[in-house]
Amino acid sequence: MNTKKAVKDLYVTLKDKGFENGLYHLSTHMCAAQRLEKIKAIRDDLDNKERVICVSTQLIEAGVDVSFDTVIRSLAGLDSIAQAAGRCNRHGEVETGEVFVIEHKEENLTRAEHIKKGGKFARYILRDIEQDATLFEGTGALGQYTMTHYFTQFYSEFAGQTNYPSKKHTGQSLYNLLLTRNSGSAENLDKKLGIVGRASFKDVGKEFCVIDEQTTDILVPYTPKGNSTQQSGADLIAELTSSEWLKDVSGFLKRAQHFTISVHLHVLKGLGNDGYIRPVEFENTNISPLYVLLDNAYDDKFGLNEEGTSVNLEAYTGEF
């Protein structure tokens, strides 16, 4: 599914209809330690030929080695569909695996324009191939020629964004700033000195963000199952409160990585307004902000549990 809300709603619906055994929920509202446990349990069930229904966001589409007989993917770009298809019959367990693409009418993609537009182009392509299988050299929905056509359409749609328009220099892109100088006097000086291609690295460095919408880390009180010797998120939170300042902050943050989740600003504000998080103060003010989540806002099924809070999951799209 494309959104955390759609994933959670479907999980709850399946559970209510009696599919609880072998039913799993996965999203980045779970810390890494919890996700790894869930994925291991899924693999164990699959190895034992147990029935497994895994309802997940896009996190399962990359770097997760699991294989299902059937995959159902909510409509998105062909690249996402291809990633999801890679979880189907991955190791040739059955003669033929099946991948279905559906349009989930209840998914709200207003905050995920790239997913929405990718799905639009994928819909057109899949429809055209259904009507004429010889299109795109007959390579099918995920073939080389099909994917080339898809990405040509997709990047044309976002042409104004792919060069990263500069907010400071009107009419310029960050890409152009890496190739040219803004100042005429600087260009003249470059010519006199024989310098070619001097770039505005400082300006680009200040403006460029890999992900436009920034996230903040929250340390969660998750305790791994079946291993009493392993440090838990609750242990790390207790460590924070046991002394005024941590002696080894970098070491602590490294240990905390498996017990943190990243949330967008509106989620952070909602949790803060409801009193479910508290900020962590470090002696070194250059360290990125970190918050601690209270016990009653985290559970074993969904990770971050927004029930009873003012967090709007409808606006929290995908893994972005």
From TrEMBL:
<dbReference type="InterPro" id="IPR001650">
    <property type="entry name" value="Helicase_C-like"/>
</dbReference>
<keyword id="KW-0378">Hydrolase</keyword>
<keyword id="KW-0051">Antiviral defense</keyword>
<protein>
    <recommendedName>
        <fullName>Helicase C-terminal domain-containing protein</fullName>
    </recommendedName>
</protein>
<keyword id="KW-0347">Helicase</keyword>
<dbReference type="InterPro" id="IPR054712">
    <property type="entry name" value="Cas3-like_dom"/>
</dbReference>
<keyword id="KW-0547">Nucleotide-binding</keyword>
<feature type="domain" description="Helicase C-terminal">
    <location>
        <begin position="8"/>
        <end position="92"/>
    </location>
</feature>
<dbReference type="Pfam" id="PF22590">
    <property type="entry name" value="Cas3-like_C_2"/>
</dbReference>
<keyword id="KW-0067">ATP-binding</keyword>
<dbReference type="InterPro" id="IPR027417">
    <property type="entry name" value="P-loop_NTPase"/>
</dbReference>
